[in-house]
Amino acid sequence: MKKIVLLSLSVLLYATSWSQEVVGQWKTIDDNSGEARSIVEIYEDEGLVYGKIVQLLDPSKAEAVCEQCSGADKDQPVVGLVIIKGLEADGDEYNGGKILDPESGKLYKCYIALEDTDRLKVRGYIGFSALGRTQYWHRVK
After folding, report:
1. In order of start, what are the domains of the chain with their CATH numbers?
2. What's the pTM?
3. Are 62 and 39 in contact (CB under 8 A)?
4. Residue 26: how many CB atoms within 10 A of its CB?
5. Residues 106, 100: contact at Cβ < 8 Å?
6. pLDDT tens, 100-131?
7. Contacts of 41 (CB under 8 A, 6+ apart)
């Protein structure tokens, strides 16, 4: 019985420590210009991973709203908008959730994976993972 409790505790601690590696603030980079666009805070809530925009780096867009979004996100301020929704740990990546593109208002399937301690691979796609776009975000220190 003691071994089962210790094994369960070890698995729980491992899962918690792994998710902590993606938790934090990440700088997003524009695909076309290569310039930093925003800061996204990735956090865990009830075993799932989420990400919200906490800062837009272009001061002229600080008051932007998600005009193209639908549902509860429609016309909401982009700062504070949850764009990564409900990812679950799956080995060395997180998937099973969605990512929102605030410019187009479209939701895509998503997975994220650490490339190294300070670099996060973020892939949004439709249908199959091969049909999508990858960005690399950089940890804010």
Report:
1. 2-139 (2.40.128.520)
2. 0.83
3. no
4. 25
5. yes
6. 999 999 999 999 999 999 999 999 999 877 88
7. 24, 25, 26, 51, 52, 54
